[in-house]
From TrEMBL:
GO terms for biological process: L-serine biosynthetic process. GO terms for cellular component: cytoplasm. Its cofactor is Mg(2+). It is an enzyme of class 3 (hydrolase). Belongs to the HAD-like hydrolase superfamily. SerB family. Its EC number is 3.1.3.3. This is Phosphoserine phosphatase. GO terms for molecular function: L-phosphoserine phosphatase activity; magnesium ion binding. It comes from the Bacteria. Pfam families: DUF4072 (PF13284), HAD (PF12710). It comes from Noviherbaspirillum galbum. The gene is serB. CDD domains: HAD_PSP. Keywords: Amino-acid biosynthesis, Hydrolase, Magnesium, Metal-binding, Serine biosynthesis.
Amino acid sequence: MNLILQGLAPDTGAIERIASLAGSRQITRLSDTAFRCAGAERTDATRAAVEAEAYAGRLDYTFVREDLRLRDFGLVAMDMDSTLITIECIDEIADMQGLKPQVAEITEAAMRGELEFRESLTRRVALLKGLDAGALQRVYDERLALSPGADAMLKAVQAAGLKTLLVSGGFTFFTDRMKTRLGLDYTHSNQLEIVDGKLTGKVIGGIVDADEKKATVERVCAGLGIPPSQAIVMGDGANDLKMMGISGMSVAFRAKPIVRAQADVALNFVGLDGILPLFAG
């Protein structure tokens, strides 16, 4: 297999030590941040040794097939909050009410898998009752930013002909704008109820929870005529695990431990464009 090592300031000595641990004697520098170690051996013992050394050196590591190509996939599906973008939108909306600590605590518990997502969203949205809907635009204008590497990743996968899906437990106000801004093909998220310019503290229609995220990936893949095994799915929280579990490549981005442990790829240090060096040619 290929062992791909990536870091924002990679130390070549660490790269060589890790390559040796994996039994690789052929190291190719792919960019300023990425190295390919060919002929690596992936065993439980090797992976554990590589993981420890890589984490100590602030390096991301991934074992991938030597023949893996981006064109082997047809869809990239992404979570939004804390994955495609750097913030949790609902936490920042709550900040407009002076309620960020209370809402953020619930968000964090849900993302760690300690609280069922549907319950957590209902509780958090209820705390927003009475907030002027203009707060949503303020969050978008003043606080929303793309995650590192997001733009480069999206341009590369779109150029390769892959379709893109943003599926979020967040809100249509933000996913609709992301779709237009980034040229995404599909979006699916929750709709906040607004009456007389105020948030009512309720969501219109069904809640996009872990099961609905998985079902959305399945629906989009079916519409494209591809199996979910031809989807790359990215997320950071426990509510992403079900859709990541049906994918051909699951990517944990700056994710909670429960998500990193189950993902094929964990990007802890580099940006979302860290998926690109995983593909040969």
